[in-house]
Structure formats: C-alpha cells, structure tokens
Design goal:
3 helices, alpha+beta, 6 strands, two-stranded antiparallel sheet
C-alpha cells in the first residue's frame, strides 16, 4: 500500500470546482462548474472533505494526471479514496 501512496504527489497544483445545483442535483447546462480553490491536490482534498457528505457529488478536483491513482478530473469517490490514502501515509 505504501508503494502505491508514494506514487501520488499531493503537492501537485490542482483546483477544486463545484457544479451549480438545483435540489441537490447537478445542473450541467449553462456555464459549467466554477472555481472554489486554486492550490495543491492536498489543499483541494482538505476543502472537499470539509463539505457535507450529501453534497460532495457536486464537487470535482482537476489536476495533472498521475496514473494509476490520479486522473485529470477526480470524482467524489476518487477524492475520498485519495484522502484515505493520504491519511494512511
């Protein structure tokens, strides 16, 4: 597990984005998601994890890919797994 975690650079630049919502559902028409945090993957994960669980599906982290664990756009599920991995290290 530690070998896999060492493959992720949590200091890589990233942005946390949020999709507009209506009744807790994404609104994909219009201007798209908007910027909340411009920082590192670590900073974006911390901000994301501070959001209520019920609304996390509205957020995405965008970063340079770091295969196999970090894709260009991280879904809520991927962010939670990366947070667990980061906390494990």
């Amino acid at each position: 597990m530690q070998g896999i975690g060492s493959q992720v650079n949590f200091d890589t630049p990233a942005v946390l984005r949020k999709w507009p919502s209506l009744r807790s559902e994404r609104v994909t028409e219009g201007n798209g998601s908007y910027l909340l945090v411009d920082g590192t993957i670590d900073e974006c994960i911390r901000e994301f994890m501070a959001k209520p669980i019920a609304t996390r599906h509205l957020y995405e982290i965008h970063a340079a890919p770091q295969p196999p664990l970090v894709s260009a756009v991280l879904s809520a599920e991927q962010v939670v797994e990366l947070a667990r991995l980061r906390d494990f290290l």
